[in-house]
Amino acid sequence: MSGAEATAPLNIHASAVALNPDCGVLILGPSGAGKSALALELMAFGARLVADDRVDLHVLEGGLMASGPTAIAGQIEARGIGILAAEALPSAQIVLAVDLSQEETERLPPARQIEIGGVVIPLVLRLRSGHAAAGILQYLKAGRVA
């Protein structure tokens, strides 16, 4: 993604992790919804931290890019444990969003989307089952078939 101007960053309350700089997930939800906990689970499966608690977003070449504010770069909260250090990616393209403020009620939900900064991104809602992190990770690796 070189040679194009980026938009001015939008700073939001969220977390972001990525498998690599081209494959990240933005985790949305209110305070206490479990954004950091989900990010930690994904990191345990091999994702890398981009940002926790606050995420800077900007549009670059039609894609949504995430990065962490300098003051909290490489830090993630583990509730009940403390603020932990993590080797963070400086930025990643967001290819999936998870909204923890809405619960998924359908077994096979329709393809959902969210628009952020004019960029449309696939969206999944909060899952109450134990496979949320594994399912999100597989989505990042191979996408959704149906």
Automatic annotation (TrEMBL):
GO MF terms, alphabetically ordered: ATP binding; phosphorelay sensor kinase activity
Domain HPr kinase/phosphorylase C-terminal positions: 12-96
InterPro entries assigned to the protein according to its UniProt record, in alphabetical order: Hpr_kin/Pase_C, P-loop_NTPase
Matching SUPFAM superfamilies: PEP carboxykinase-like
Coiled-coil residue spans: none
Gene3D superfamilies with a match to the protein in the record: P-loop containing nucleotide triphosphate hydrolases
Any one of the GO BP annotations: regulation of carbohydrate metabolic process
Domain of life where this protein originates: Bacteria
Annotated keywords: Kinase, Transferase
One matching Pfam family: Hpr_kinase_C
Annotated protein name in UniProt: Serine kinase
